[in-house]
Amino acid sequence: MSASSVKRYRRDSEKSDAEEENDKYVPYVPVRERKKQQLLKLGRIVQLTAEASAVGKSSSENEHEEESTEESWGRKFNISLLDQHTELKKIAEAKKISAVEKQLKEEEKILESVAEKKALMGVAELAKGIQYEDPIKTSWTPPRYILAKPESRHEKIREKLRILTEGENVPPPLLTFREMKLPKAVLAALAKRNIKKPSPIQVQGIPAVLAGRDLIGIAFTGSGKTLVFVLPIIMFCLEQELRLPFIKREGPYGLIICPSRELAKQTHDIIQYYCRHLQEAGMPEIRTVLAIGGVPVNDAIAIIQQGAHIMVATPGRLMDMLDKKLVNLDVCRYLCMDEADRMIDMGFEEDVRTIFSYFKGQRQTLLFSATMPKKIQNFAKSALVKPVTINVGRAGAASMNVTQDVEYVKQEAKVVYLLECLQKTPPPVLIFAEKKQDVDAIHEYLLLKGVEAVAIHGGKDQEERYRSVESFRNQEKDVLVATDVASKGLDFPDVQHVINYDMPDDIENYVHRIGRTGRSGSKGLATTFINKATEQFVLLDLKHLLIEAKQKVPPFLGELCSETEKYADLGDGCSYCGGLGHRITECPKLEAVQSKQASNIGRRDYLSNTAADY
């Protein structure tokens, strides 16, 4: 290699080294400038991560905001980095949506997605787009001196009695039956049953119904909900009969639907009691028809032929009679659904819609229950016209008159331990079990031990069920063993003790079960057996129900906890099923319903009433 080429090579290598050094060179930035850049970077991160009001703004507004941010951070060069970092954190926390707000938004979306989109109305009404603007008008008005009093007086009464109302122009509460303008015969009948003054639900509910308003009535078990719909319907039918007597095959004017045969029979007997007193006082006869399954339909048809004023029915028998044109709802203007949440719940919407489609005009609709979750309330309101919602205590809350005793009992020791529990109070005692075979096993065991006991469940014929309930009510028998068929609405005034042989799958059923005692202001005891076979979500709901009712929480329940317990203070628990121990985001009942719907996709029941005959 020549000397010139060696020199050229050396120059090239020196040049490349210099270029390399130039590439690695980082220009010096003063400390003040570096702080400013870091702060700008932090400010932009906060802007990007926080869900601020930047969404939906124009690009020019965003640019302007960015410039102002840069300027503001630029101006703060004289504040220490630590102070600026603290300030940034505060801004981020202020802009960030809290976990509670996120939870509520998520629950709102879920509730909206599961809400029934189709209104709870008859097919003809939906097809023609019929919508009623105003409630039915009646001839009843509150006393003048009550109307003359200010709204503040009514609010004070509601506050004192813990009555919560929603709706427009809610009628004033009335503190005596006399103020409700009930006939003397009805007042005498009430006095005979030792009912001297109205309960809170009656104070507000009866005036609202007499005024013709659609109503959702929610109150704890044993609070006197039945009289809220029974007394007004008797008054309305009496008024119609006096104006123009009912002719043959006319009616019913009022329809009351109950979820179980026993509850329908009990409601029918209550109506007949007051109608009999009116007739004895010289008033016209009010004919009441009972339409329930398991008994011959001939008795019901005979009364309908004469012209029926009131019909009390279970959904199955009513739909059958409507389908066979044995009865019509042409003149029916009053509909009440007792324990309404059970009838509007999953699987019953279409039955209710079918019944609604037989109505020929506007009706006054009343819905009553001790447990009515938000989902059911929202759906039910689609069937009502400017409804009044009356709430005495939380929907789904247990009666405060019942002492709840929860005990851990092993599965194999339950039957034997029952005898010990029966000693806690004098008879009569009510025992609930989830399964029919458990009811039969308990009944047989008690009979072997010499206990006077009877049993009812869906597998027994109606005559036997009726005899069992009546013998227990008349105190001929000491113990009634039953499935949940006896848990809703049935009134046994003398029962001091309810025993839950097992915990029901649904906390609503538990509330209804223990509500068979502690009725009409009297005290009662509820003993519940639980063990490791009981689902954890039900136990969590039970724990929070006990806390709400200020009852003793046993240690094995107190130790249970879940992720959603931190949201326990948000409100009334799950808006789908009403359980206090979980939120709608973790509702097992909703998950079960969704799984069932998913498995039924693509299937069709060609044997259903509404399907074509293939």
UniProtKB/TrEMBL annotation:
One of its GO terms (molecular function) is RNA helicase activity. Pfam families: DEAD, Helicase_C. SMART domains: DEXDc (SM00487), HELICc (SM00490). CDD domains: DEADc_DDX41, SF2_C_DEAD. SUPFAM superfamilies: P-loop containing nucleoside triphosphate hydrolases (SSF52540). The keyword Aminoacyl-tRNA synthetase does not apply. Residues 206-390 form the Helicase ATP-binding domain. Transmembrane segments: none annotated. Belongs to the DEAD box helicase family. DDX41 subfamily. This is RNA helicase. It comes from Anopheles stephensi. The lineage of its organism: Eukaryota, Metazoa, Ecdysozoa, Arthropoda, Hexapoda.
